[in-house]
From TrEMBL:
Residues 675-689 have a biased composition (Basic residues). Residues 620-705 are annotated as: Disordered. The lineage of its organism: Eukaryota, Fungi, Dikarya, Basidiomycota, Agaricomycotina. It comes from the Eukaryota. GO terms for molecular function: protein kinase activity. Residues 157-498 form the Fungal-type protein kinase domain. Signal peptide: none annotated. InterPro entries: Kinase-like_dom_sf, Pkinase_fungal, Tyr_kinase_AS. PROSITE patterns: PROTEIN_KINASE_TYR (PS00109). This is Fungal-type protein kinase domain-containing protein.
Length: 705
């Protein structure tokens, strides 16, 4: 399974947090190395040779060819902190000429972590480079003895080691500094990369983090190469936010309290012209808590006319088809979110790194990722914000119709990641076909490709909602294609989630995660598949699993849909567990797929029957009291989706876009790296725009699907 940071919020010790970083970026001998010369060339302009010579002659901190740091026997690591702070704080203002960067000893002072749900976890880098500027803000929570110290206003960290403990490479130190880096990505949501220095009294090297993982440099002797050491300090404290690793197309206004007050996001409109939107809120509505991977971050923005959009920033694997390709083909389809504009290949992680120097194994662990920005039209909130049973069932029905629209009409697009997070409610009063929307085509694929290229993979999708056949794809005999029936089964699990976990409608009612649902979320696909198979093979006793809130028409829908899905699973299992030849298996699957229209019509008719029987408004009952789903509810340690209180009013709530994925989502499996020549040009030349979709919820006159 691909690396992820799902267990981080359960990490109660530093050692446990390190293990999470290792699981995400790989073991030490898998991490790519490079020469420090690559980064020194990037930082060369920050300090001219003549100015370095002048500084070294002037300073009292570099004497007789060595920096003023303790070296006598018995020196402890902590004895290096204050001398390093002093050195950095003499270098930074001399060369930068700026007062908005300052080195501070932070060892022993808790820099609090930001997680979802909230956590008391913290970590303490030895030193931080505290920063002011349009991308930095006063931390949400700070150490009592060091107010203002946090990851949200740290340009970088300096990790100190005694020379005898440093070793010959930085590989073993990557997990430690990876903890700090991860928090900087989370608390500085416009981060493109993070670089951290590891320093001893004699040597130093740099560790680089981006959405492809980590890379570390060789070590230099800082006493023999003082100019290079100065440039490294200047690089990780640079006032130029772009060079520091921040996306300067997103900028904030910092209020008198040091916190982000408002902000802007600059991109391209549908005609390819530069446009600057206001951020509706200064913080993203979704921020993937990881280093390596897509790094999806979503913002709500507003144009000058007051129209709101959802902006999705992400880093796609180089070999993966861009989401914009599918969104372009989905233009005008009911039940599918519509794209307003996009920027393709804004940057790539290969541009941030040096050439790999430690062999094929490390090269195989690097997978280039390209930045993309998509502007989408806004709809309602996630389906978990439903206001009545009819609201929820209607939205789910129209999202299924949207899925059919993607598969049919010559588009042949298969979503492959149906989940509770990827279905939005339509706007109030929406007509049939526009009451629910399918979003997030990150994992989509063209279904008319060679079947060998769309083999089901248990690493693709959201574990809790994956089909049994996808979960069993780790078994050799179940090497079958991921098809529309797998996605149909995922919709069934979404319905189960709603009916098992919600005892009412509205944001005051929160999900209580049923034990049955928890069992489907097992890290191990073998156990998750076994638990779902057991559920499919036994009668559905509504009184044992369905919340009493749900109408008998919903219960009938659940039972009928379960029967439909169970029959499909049984038929597929017979095909692949029987004595059929490979050719006979293909013929049987092709025969099954030939019934796709009948399958969709059957499922949609089940939903239509239930919707017709449901009242427009739920009966008035006493408010249900429920507890939040917490970390303990999820075997992955991530929060299971619950109704959000992010909205400040009902009117505002309907504009809040959905978090693109739950935190227990499985990262997309890495694909082989494409070998291509490195170029100095920026990738930002490859931009594109989509003309505004003619489809709107108030104006569409097309027939509901």
């Amino acid at each position: 399974m691909a690396a992820s940071t799902q267990n981080t919020t359960q990490a109660s010790t530093l050692a446990a947090q390190k293990q999470v970083i290792v699981a995400e970026i790989g073991k030490s001998n898998d991490i790519p190395a490079t020469t420090i010369g690559h980064f020194l060339a990037e930082y060369e302009h920050l300090a001219e040779k003549d100015k370095i010579k002048k500084f070294l002659r002037k300073t009292k901190l570099y004497k007789k060819g060595v920096w003023e740091m303790p070296r006598e026997e018995g020196t402890k690591e902590e004895n290096l902190y204050v001398p390093m702070e002093t050195i950095a704080n003499e270098i930074i203002p001399y060369f930068h000429g700026s007062s908005n960067r300052k080195a501070l000893v932070s060892s022993g002072k808790p820099l609090y972590h930001k997680e979802n749900p909230a956590t008391n976890h913290s970590s303490s880098p030895d030193l931080v480079i505290q920063a002011n500027g349009p991308s930095f803000e006063f931390p949400h929570r700070t150490p009592m003895l060091a107010p203002g110290l946090g990851y949200s206003n740290s340009a970088s960290c300096l990790e100190m080691k005694l020379d005898k403990d440093l070793g010959n490479t930085l590989a073993s130190h990557v997990p430690q500094v990876g903890i700090y880096s991860r928090q900087m990505f989370i608390q500085q949501p416009n981060r493109r990369f993070v670089r951290i220095l590891v320093i001893s009294e004699n040597r130093a090297g740099l560790v680089h983090f981006d959405r492809s993982g980590a890379q570390y440099t060789d070590l230099i002797n800082i006493n023999e190469r003082p100019g290079d050491f100065i440039r490294l300090i200047l690089g990780v404290s640079c006032p130029d936010e772009h060079l520091l690793g921040l996306d300067t197309t997103i900028q904030w206004v910092i209020g008198p309290d040091g916190r982000k007050k408002s902000g802007t996001l600059t991109t391209e409109d549908a005609d390819g012209n530069e446009i600057t939107y206001d951020l509706v809120e200064p913080y993203p509505v979704f921020n993937r808590h990881s280093i390596r991977g897509r790094g999806t971050i979503c913002w709500t923005v507003r144009d000058a006319a007051g129209n709101e959009f959802l902006v999705k920033d992400s880093w796609r694997s180089e070999r993966r088809e861009s989401e914009t390709t599918f969104l372009e083909k989905a233009k005008g389809l009911q039940g599918v979110a519509q794209m307003a504009s996009f920027e393709e290949d804004r940057e790539e992680t290969a541009e941030f790194r040096g050439p790999i120097t430690n062999g094929q194994r490390a090269e195989d662990n690097f997978h280039n990722r390209r930045s993309m920005r998509v502007v989408l039209h806004c709809y309602g909130p996630p389906i978990i914000h439903f206001t009545s049973m009819k609201h929820a069932i209607s939205a789910l029905r129209d999202a299924i119709a949207g899925h059919r629209n993607l598969i049919h009409q010559d588009r042949r697009i298969l979503h492959r990641d149906i989940s509770i997070s990827n279905i939005l409610l339509g706007n109030p009063g929406a007509q049939k076909g526009l009451r629910g929307f399918l979003i997030d085509l990150d994992m989509a694929i063209f279904w008319n490709r060679d079947p060998s290229e769309i083999i089901a993979d248990c690493r693709t999708g959201t574990r809790l909602f994956q089909s049994i056949m996808v979960l069993r794809s780790f078994e050799k005999k179940f090497q079958t294609t991921h098809d529309y029936l797998d996605d149909m089964e995922s919709y069934f699990y979404v319905l189960c989630y709603l009916m098992f976990c919600f005892s009412g409608a509205g944001d005051h009612v929160k999900a209580i995660i049923a034990d049955e649902i928890k069992s489907w979320d097992d890290d191990n696909p073998k156990f998750a598949a076994a638990n779902k198979t057991s559920f499919m093979n036994r009668p559905l006793r509504a009184q044992d699993c369905v919340a009493p809130y749900w109408h008998k028409a919903c219960v009938s829908l659940l039972k009928d849909l379960k029967l439909f899905v169970a029959n499909i699973v049984r038929e597929k299992t017979e095909i692949f567990e029987g004595e059929l030849t490979e050719e006979e298996q293909e013929d049987r699957i092709e025969e099954l797929h030939g019934k796709d229209n009948d399958h969709y019509e059957k499922v949609l008719s089940l939903f239509d029957k239930a919707i017709e029987a449901l009242p427009d408004q739920d009966p008035v009952v006493e408010s249900s009291k429920a507890t939040d789903a917490t970390l303990a509810d999820s075997p992955h340690g991530g929060p299971l989706p619950t109704a959000s209180h992010a909205s400040k009013s009902a009117a505002k709530a309907k504009r809040i876009p959905v978090p693109k994925r739950s935190s227990q989502e499985l990262e997309d499996p890495e694909e082989p790296q494409v070998k291509h020549p490195r170029t100095a040009r920026s990738m930002r030349s490859k931009r594109g725009a989509a003309k505004p979709s003619p489809l709107s919820q108030s104006q569409s006159k097309s027939t509901a699907q």
